Amino acid sequence: MAYQADISRSNPGCFLFLLDQSGSMADGFAGGNGHSKADELATIINRLLASLVIRCSKDEGVRNYFDVGVIGYGARVAPALASAPDDTMPDCAH
After folding, report:
1. Tens-place pLDDT, residues 74-92
2. Taking the model in full, what pTM does it have?
3. What is the DSSP string of 5-73?
4. 38-48 pLDDT, tens per residue?
């Protein structure tokens, strides 16, 4: 049987996104739409985060039903949210 748990403010769900930020993400996305892989990834993640905010929105505001983490990896591993300090994680060894 698969694990199941109710998501609530006292028991929030957790999303952890690991985003490829290597040089290959500048390459074109398959399908020839002219966007890079990085552009497509940003669009997908932004839509998903917007959807989570909408699902958490109630008349009195946005409730904390989910914890979200975003980690970028490539030449470095570091928090990938704009508000996160980028010097909190060490450089990766090559």
Report:
1. 888 877 766 544 444 444 3
2. 0.70
3. ----SSS-EEEEEEEE-SGGGGSBPTTS-S-BHHHHHHHHHHHHHHHHHHHHEETTEE---EEEEEEEE
4. 999 999 999 99
